[in-house]
């Protein structure tokens, strides 16, 4: 099938996620079909090569066609691709659970996460987490603990429970009538914070903020107000991804989690995006020095290869489900603990542990930091923030007033479309540009990514 014919058929039969119909069907828009990939590169069916500037929607860690992960999947495939996990078990899941427990508890923080529940993606990992917490409280004599609180803009996925835990107007407003209500506190976003008295500088707003950490104080107050009805404080630690790569002042996760524990509530961390070295080693939780009671992992779990997710929790939550069959966790999926996914995840963890990969990762993070300064040359850049291997560039209309660009102009989208022509693939969040390279990206490739994004920005907003 030639590529024009396959795009015609795509437009006839397919429905793409998070993609406006008007854009996809626009005859002047050329959809890109990916044929293959290697390392930090993706190759289109047109033969053109593109740098994977957002790690294939924040999933890929070690690059495409990684020999270790490929081999692990092949070896598993020669044994079995899938069998049920309901009342049965298998070696890849057992080994992976053991490795994940080691990974999560590597820093000896408390509580220890002893139990692993597998699901398919970030949304289902969060859905499982919230149901575990609710049922554990109900079975432990605290059925009134049904309330959840999270920051404004929080995004935990697209299932009804995961949506209810979040606060994304754009993504959720159509479904509001069927979502359960959850509490909301201000987004800990230093650049746009009403309490930050600092004048804008050419730096990450967290580094020059002048405030009294009101975002944490207000969250603590709200948590205390909920008191005995609070089931959990829910947080993407360090970085709220879909909210616009909002990077929290360090210590926010720790302070707010302590408040939740003071009122006897649980802490539910969503490390779907931030986990596996993306924002800290081993996890963002460790960088903050706080362990949640329930931890959701997905995206990078298989190195960006296969849909697999894990919800880790404590022994005491697990034990709340002991007793008669009525105390069972009646929750799961047909493909829970898929052996191919488990094999890929085991290979991913093996790669993450290799010293040479750690050195490469650290060097990538440092290089990203030094290159990030180049964005300040453009007057419509208002905030350049970085957490680990995530760089976010917030575009604004006026640097002095921080006035945003007109949303209807979709400037961020236009910049990324232009970057595509220059050989870089990434997606913006509104007018926030994102660079999130796979860890295997070389210095030269990273420079090419930054060059392309800057050139694209200058094309869309000439200076
Ligand atoms: C923090 C966070 N949680 C949950 C999800 C949902 O994950 P998935 O798309 O795998 O369902 C996402 C997806 O972007 C995410 O960024």
Walk me through what this model shows:
By secondary structure, the chain is α/β, with parallel strands linked by helices. A hairpin with a 2-residue loop joins strand 13 and strand 14. The chain is globular, with a radius of gyration of 22 Å. The longest helix is centred in the N-terminal third of the chain and has 18 residues. The mean pLDDT is 97. The strands form four sheets. It has a seven-stranded mixed β-sheet, with helices on both faces. The protein has a four-stranded mixed β-sheet with strand order 1-2-3-15. The site of pyridoxal-5'-phosphate has 14 residues, from helix 6.
Summarize the helices and strands and which ones pair or pack.
Blueprint: H1 3-13, H2 21-25, E1 34-38, E2 41-44, E3 49-52, H3 55-58, H4 67-77, H5 91-104, E4 115-119, H6 122-139, E5 147-151, H7 160-165, H8 169-172, E6 183-185, H9 205-208, H10 214-226, E7 230-235, E8 239-240, E9 246-247, H11 252-262, E10 266-270, H12 284-288, E11 294-297, E12 309-313, H13 315-319, H14 339-353, H15 355-372, E13 381-387, E14 390-395, H16 411-421, E15 424-425, E16 432-435, H17 443-460
Parallel strand pairs: 3-15, 5-6, 5-7, 7-10, 10-11
Antiparallel strand pairs: 1-2, 2-3, 4-12, 8-9, 11-12, 13-14, 14-16
Helix pairs in contact: 4-14, 5-14, 10-11, 15-17, 16-17
The structure holds pyridoxal-5'-phosphate.
Pyridoxal-5'-phosphate (PLP) is lined by residues 121-123, 126, 155-157, 236, 241-242, 270, 272-273, 298.
């Amino acid at each position: 099938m030639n590529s024009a014919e396959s795009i015609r058929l795509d437009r006839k039969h397919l429905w793409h996620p998070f993609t406006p119909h008007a854009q996809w069907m626009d005859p002047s828009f050329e959809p890109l079909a990916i044929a293959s990939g290697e390392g930090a590169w993706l190759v289109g069916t047109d033969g053109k090569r593109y740098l994977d500037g957002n790690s294939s929607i924040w999933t890929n860690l070690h690059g495409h066609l990684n020999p270790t992960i490929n081999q692990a999947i092949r070896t598993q495939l020669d044994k079995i691709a899938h069998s049920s996990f309901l009342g049965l078990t298998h070696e890849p899941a057992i080994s992976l659970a053991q490795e994940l427990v080691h990974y999560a508890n590597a820093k000896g923080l408390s509580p220890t996460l002893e139990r692993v529940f597998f699901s398919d993606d970030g949304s289902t990992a969060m859905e499982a987490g919230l149901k575990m917490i609710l049922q554990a409280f109900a079975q432990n004599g605290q059925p009134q603990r049904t309330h959840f609180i999270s920051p404004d803009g929080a995004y935990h996925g697209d299932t009804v429970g995961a949506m209810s835990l979040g606060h994304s107007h754009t993504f959720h407003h159509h479904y509001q009538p069927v979502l359960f209500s959850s509490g909301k506190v201000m987004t800990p976003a230093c650049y746009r914070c009403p309490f930050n008295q600092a004048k804008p500088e050419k730096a990450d707003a967290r580094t020059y903020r002048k405030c009294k950490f009101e975002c944490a104080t207000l969250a603590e107050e709200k948590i205390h107000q909920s008191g005995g009805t609070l089931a959990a404080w829910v947080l993407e630690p360090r970085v709220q991804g879909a909210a616009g790569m909002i990077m929290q002042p360090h210590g926010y996760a720790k302070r707010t989690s302590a408040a939740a524990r003071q009122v006897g509530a649980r802490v539910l961390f969503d490390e779907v995006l931030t986990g596996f070295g993306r924002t800290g080693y081993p996890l963002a939780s460790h960088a903050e020095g706080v362990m949640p009671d329930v931890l959701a992992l997905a995206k990078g779990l298989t190195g960006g290869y296969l849909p697999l997710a894990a919800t880790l929790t404590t022994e005491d939550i697990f034990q709340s489900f002991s007793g008669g069959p009525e105390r069972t966790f009646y929750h799961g999926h047909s493909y829970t603990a898929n052996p191919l996914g488990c094999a890929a995840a085991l290979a991913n963890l093996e790669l993450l542990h290799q010293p040479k990969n750690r050195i490469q990762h650290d060097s990538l993070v440092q290089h990203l930091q030094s290159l990030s300064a180049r964005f300040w040359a453009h007057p419509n850049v208002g905030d350049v923030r970085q957490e680990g291997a995530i760089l976010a560039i917030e575009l604004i209309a006026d640097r002095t007033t921080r006035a945003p660009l007109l949303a209807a102009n979709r400037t961020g989208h236009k910049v990324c479309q232009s970057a595509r022509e220059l050989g870089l693939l990434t997606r913006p969040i509104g007018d926030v540009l994102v660079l999130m390279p796979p860890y295997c990206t070389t210095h030269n490739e990273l420079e090419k990514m930054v060059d392309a994004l800057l050139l694209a920005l200058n094309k869309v907003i000439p200076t």
